[in-house]
Task: inverse folding
């Protein structure tokens, strides 16, 4: 009996890669699907290996919080002035910003 469990294959199918590419709005040539499937499977297998490392291997946690805490106090936001500085173009009282996600085509 082995001391560590055997890694299980996190097989990523070409169909899964196709779905991920669609969600990410990426164009992926059909001939590349098998390559991406293997690469993503290797990444997932590596993550599975990391999950099997016992917590004790990382040592004791550091004393105190990792990030110093600060008071959660409100501050003036300078409403209209801040909007004007961050979005100089306005329409109907709202800041107009360029579209940065997607092409707008279905």
Result:
């Amino acid at each position: 009996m082995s001391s560590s469990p055997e890694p299980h294959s996190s097989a990523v199918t070409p169909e899964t890669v196709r779905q991920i590419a669609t969600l990410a709005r990426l164009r992926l040539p059909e001939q590349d699907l098998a390559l991406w499937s293997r690469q993503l499977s290797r990444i997932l297998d590596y993550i599975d290996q990391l999950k099997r490392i016992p917590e004790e291997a990382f040592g004791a946690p550091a004393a105190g919080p990792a990030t110093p805490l600060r008071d959660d106090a409100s501050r003036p936001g300078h409403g209209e002035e801040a909007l004007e500085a961050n979005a100089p173009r306005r329409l109907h009282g709202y800041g107009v910003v360029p579209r940065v996600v997607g092409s707008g085509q279905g």
